[in-house]
Amino acid sequence: MNSPLHVVVLSASPDNPSKTATLADMAAREIAARHSGAQIATVNVYRIGTGLTSAIMRSDVDDRAERALETVEHADVLLAAVPVYRGSYPGMFKHFMDLLDQNALRRTPVILIATGGSDRHTLVVDHVMRPLFAFFHAYCAPTGIYASATDFDGATLTNPHIGQRISQAVDDIDPLLRAW
Fold first, then answer.
1. Residue 125 DSSP symbol
2. Phi, psi of 68 (to 5 degrees)
């Protein structure tokens, strides 16, 4: 393809700096390092505002929320990154996903990323996030990325094994990106 690879980070962390954003940024940089000219965009559902939160249907969103939705819908690669909240992804993330076009992510390579307070939430990637993206017919990397609070010092990743998982997840989707 002649167009640049559009990598979109869909983040659902209200914190800044964020452990969740750290992992997503690492994955985005890894993809960009492998695919020259890749363009990275970030959509944080907590930064969109009332144009998203007050919307009941897609027709209710404002221009800012519409641009965010379209950015995700036109991703060549999506990095979905969420902190675990009460055993799942945050409700704001789910609300955003509810407003996406049902067919927009069909065949889109997706890397699933989650962070949580402890290892008790490790399975959130496979038991909560993966089914959501299966509904959208996205191609999820078999390797999911999860890190707990003990893997960080503040928002700095200290566990090298998580970096290896990020590389493996990018390896998983690389065959789908050969056209770029």
1. I
2. -65, -45
What is the helix, strand, coil percentage profile of the chain, to 5? 45, 20, 35
Q: Find out whether 27 and 145 touch, Cβ atoms under 8 Å.
A: yes
Identify the band that residue 89 occupies on the pLDDT scale cut at 50, 70 and 90.
very high
Distance (Å, whole) CA 90 – CA 143: 21
d(CA 43, CA 130): 19
73 three-state secondary structure: helix
Residue 32's pLDDT band (cuts 50, 70, 90):
very high
Cα 112 to its chain centre, rounded Å, is 6
What digits encode the pLDDT tens for the residues 122-146? 999 999 999 999 999 999 999 999 9
Q: What's the chain's length in residues?
A: 180
As a whole number of angstroms, the distance between CA 132 and CA 134 comes to: 5
Instruction: Report all structural domains of the chain as residue ranges with CATH numbers, in order of start.
Output: 6-175 (3.40.50.360)
- Which sign, positive or negative, has the C-alpha torsion 132, 145, 109, 16? positive
Return the sign of the alpha-carbon dihedral for residues 109, 28, 154, 91: negative
Determine the residue type at 57: M
pLDDT tens digits, residue range 61-74?
Answer: 999 999 999 999 99
Token pair for 9? 């980070």
pTM to 2 decimal places: 0.96
Name beta bridge partners: 39: 6
